[in-house]
C-alpha cells in the first residue's frame, strides 16, 4: 500500500488554502485526489513568486500528491463531467457556499442520486442554519470573528492584529481532514455516504473558547472569560541579556527550581499568591513579571544551560531562517529536496507523522494546471472525440 488511504478517490473542488490543505494531507495518506480547477486555475498558483507557469510556493506546499483536471463548472458539460467523476468516487470536497453548489446542480441530493456511498464534505464560512450563512469568509475575517485579534490585544498588544499565519484555514483544514476520515470509517460500517458540513466560524470559535470560556463554563459564571495564564502580558518569549528564550514554568517543582536559581526561593515560600497552582494562576501576571525581570540578568546561552540542568522546559526562540538550519528538523528528514519536472529543485516539507506500516509519502509534486485532464477523463470512460469536444467548447484544457 502507498499509504493508509490507498484506493480512496477524492474529487476536490476546493481552492485557496483551507480545502487544499485538508486534501493535501489526505493525498499524503495515499488518497487519489483529483483537483478540479477552473480554466483560470486555483488563485493560490499566483501567490508569491510563481513564474510563467503559475506555480507559486503556497500552491506547491498545499497540492502535492494531487492530479489536476480543468473543468468549467459554469458550463453544463463541465458540471456533467463532475457528476461522472463522482459516480465512482469516495469523497467530494468543496469550499463555496452550499447554496452555490445547489444552484450548480451539484448539491448533496444531486450527487447522492448517482452515488449513495459518496462522502460530501463542505468547508465554508458559517453554518448554514445561522444568520451569517451567506457571509463571505476568509482567514482574516474568521480570525477576527472568532476573537483572535481581540485576544492578542487583551493580552498586551497595543493594537489588535491577526496571527501572522493562516491559522483559521489550517486549523479548519486539519479538522476537516479528520472529519472526512471519520466519515469514511462510518461508511465502512454502514455502507452509506453522508454530507458533512465543516464551518470555519464554529470550528474556530470552539478552538478559541475551549481555552477562554473559562469562568463562563459554569452556570452561573464563576469568574470572567479568558484563561489567565494565556492572557498574561508577560507570557511571551522572555528577553535575556542578549536575546530571547522560551520557558514554561508550570508545576510546583518548576517554580521552586526557578526561584532557587534566581536566589529568591524565600519569596515563593512567603508570598501566599504563589504557594499553589490555583493561587499562581490567579496571580500569573505578577509571577511572569518577576520572571521577566530575572531573565534579563543572564545570557540566552546561560539560561538554556541552567534551566535545562534544572529540568525546567526551555527552548530557544527560532526565526524562520533558524528553522531551515535547525539540527533536529534536519536530522529527522523534515526538509525534502525534490526535482520538479518544470520548476526545478524545490525544498519541501515531509509528512511529520511516522508509521510502522502503510507510511504516507511524497509520491509526486504539485501538478501544473490540467496536467492530468485527459488521463482522468479517460479513466471515467470519456473517448478521445468527447475530450476533444470539451476542449473545443472551452470546458477543459490539457497540458502537453
Quick structural overview:
The chain is of the alpha/beta class. Helices cover 42% and strands 13% of the residues. The protein has helices spanning 18-28, 57-62, 76-86, 98-103, 108-114, 139-145, 148-154, 167-190, 200-212, 228-231, 252-261, 265-270, 277-282, 284-295, 300-309, 320-325, 327-331, 373-379, 384-392, and strands at residues 9-12, 32-37, 66-70, 91-94, 119-124, 194-199, 238-239, 244-247, 314-316, 335-340, 344-349.
CATH topology of the largest domain: Rossmann fold
> What is the distance, rounded to the nearest whole angstrom, between the alpha carbons of the first and last residues?
30 Å
Order of strands, main sheet, comes to 3-2-1-4-5-6
Shape: elongated
Specify Rg, calculated over alpha carbons: 26 Å
Number of strands: 11
Class derived from helix and strand content: alpha/beta
- For the record, what is the CATH homologous superfamily label of the largest domain? Crotonobetainyl-coa:carnitine coa-transferase, domain 1
Query: Which percent range describes the beta-strand content?
Result: 5-15%
Low-confidence parts, pLDDT < 50 over ≥5 residues? none
Helix fraction by DSSP (H/I, runs of at least 4): 40-55%
Whole-number average pLDDT?
95
CATH class of the largest domain: Alpha Beta
Largest sheet: 6 strands, parallel
Reported CATH architecture of the largest domain: 3-Layer(aba) Sandwich
Amino acid at each position: 500500500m502507498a499509504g493508509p488511504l490507498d484506493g480512496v478517490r477524492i474529487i476536490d473542488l476546493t481552492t485557496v488554502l483551507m480545502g487544499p490543505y485538508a486534501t493535501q494531507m489526505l493525498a499524503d495518506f495515499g488518497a487519489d485526489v483529483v483537483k478540479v480547477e477552473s480554466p483560470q486555475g486555483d488563485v493560490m498558483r499566483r501567490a508569491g513568486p510563481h513564474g510563467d507557469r503559475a506555480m507559486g510556493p503556497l500552491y506547491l506546499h498545499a497540492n502535492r500528491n494531487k492530479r489536476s483536471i480543468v473543468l468549467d463548472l459554469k458550463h453544463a458539460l463541465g458540471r456533467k463531467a463532475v457528476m461522472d467523476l463522482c459516480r465512482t468516487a469516495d469523497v467530494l470536497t468543496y469550499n463555496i457556499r452550499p447554496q452555490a453548489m445547489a444552484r450548480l446542480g451539484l448539491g448533496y441530493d444531486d450527487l447522492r442520486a448517482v452515488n449513495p456511498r459518496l462522502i460530501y464534505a463542505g468547508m465554508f464560512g458559517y453554518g448554514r442554519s445561522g444568520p451569517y450563512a451567506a457571509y463571505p469568509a476568509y482567514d482574516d475575517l474568521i480570525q477576527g470573528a472568532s476573537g483572535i485579534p481581540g485576544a492578542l490585544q487583551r493580552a498586551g498588544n497595543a493594537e489588535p492584529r491577526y496571527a501572522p499565519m493562516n491559522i483559521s484555514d489550517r486549523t479548519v483544514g486539519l479538522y476537516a481532514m479528520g472529519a472526512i476520515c471519520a466519515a469514511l470509517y462510518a461508511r465502512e460500517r454502514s455502507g452509506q455516504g453522508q454530507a458533512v458540513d465543516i464551518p470555519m466560524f464554529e470550528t474556530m470559535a470552539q478552538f478559541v473558547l475551549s481555552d477562554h470560556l473559562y469562568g463562563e463554563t459554569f452556570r452561573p459564571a464563576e469568574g470572567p472569560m479568558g484563561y489567565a495564564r494565556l492572557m498574561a502580558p508577560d507570557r511571551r518569549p522572555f528577553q535575556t541579556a542578549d536575546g530571547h528564550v522560551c520557558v514554561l514554568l508550570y508545576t510546583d517543582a518548576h517554580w521552586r527550581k526557578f526561584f532557587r536559581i534566581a536566589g529568591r526561593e524565600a519569596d515563593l515560600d512567603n508570598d501566599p499568591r504563589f504557594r499553589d497552582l490555583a493561587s499562581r494562576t490567579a496571580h500569573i501576571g505578577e509571577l511572569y513579571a518577576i520572571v521577566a525581570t530575572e531573565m534579563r540578568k543572564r545570557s540566552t546561552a546561560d539560561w538554556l544551560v541552567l534551566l535545562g540542568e534544572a529540568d525546567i522546559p526551555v527552548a530557544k526562540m527560532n526565526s524562520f531562517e533558524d528553522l531551515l538550519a535547525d539540527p533536529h528538523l534536519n536530522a529527522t528528514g523534515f526538509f525534502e529536496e525534490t526535482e520538479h519536472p518544470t520548476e526545478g529543485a524545490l525544498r519541501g516539507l515531509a509528512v511529520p507523522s511516522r508509521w510502522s506500516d502503510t507510511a504516507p509519502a511524497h509520491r509526486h509534486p504539485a501538478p501544473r494546471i490540467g496536467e492530468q485532464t485527459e488521463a482522468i477523463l479517460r479513466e471515467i470512460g470519456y473517448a478521445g472525440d468527447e475530450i476533444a469536444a470539451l476542449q473545443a467548447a472551452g470546458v477543459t484544457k490539457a497540458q502537453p
